[in-house]
């Protein structure tokens, strides 16, 4: 049985990742030679994150815990840790 995770904490984790991807989109758009493929990949990740954030509104405790664990790991990975 997964550990209970507060849904608000899970939303915060998702929003941290959304913020990271949004910053990457801004940087790529401002680059002298933006990489269209990277930009599209980052935008696709933002769409996926937004879907997960919406899913948390109706998710079971188990689903909340799974999403929180996934985003905690992704956040660490994206921040280089």
Q: Roughly what fraction of the amino acids lie in strands?
A: under 5%
Mean pLDDT: 94
Distance between the termini: 27 Å
Sketch the major β-sheet. none
Low-confidence stretches: none
Summarize the structure.
This protein is mainly α and 81 residues long.
Please give a structural write-up.
- With 81 residues, the chain is mainly α.
- The protein has one domain (7-78).
- The chain has helices at residues 7-30, 36-55, 61-78.
- Helix 1 packs antiparallel against helix 2 (36-55) and helix 1 runs parallel beside helix 3.
- It is elongated.
- The chain starts with 6 loop residues before the first helix and ends with a helix.
- The model has no long low-confidence stretch (mean pLDDT 94).
Topology of this structure?
Layout: H1 7-30, H2 36-55, H3 61-78
Helix pairs in contact: 1-2, 1-3
Describe the structure using short key phrases:
single chain; 81 residues; mainly alpha; 3 helices
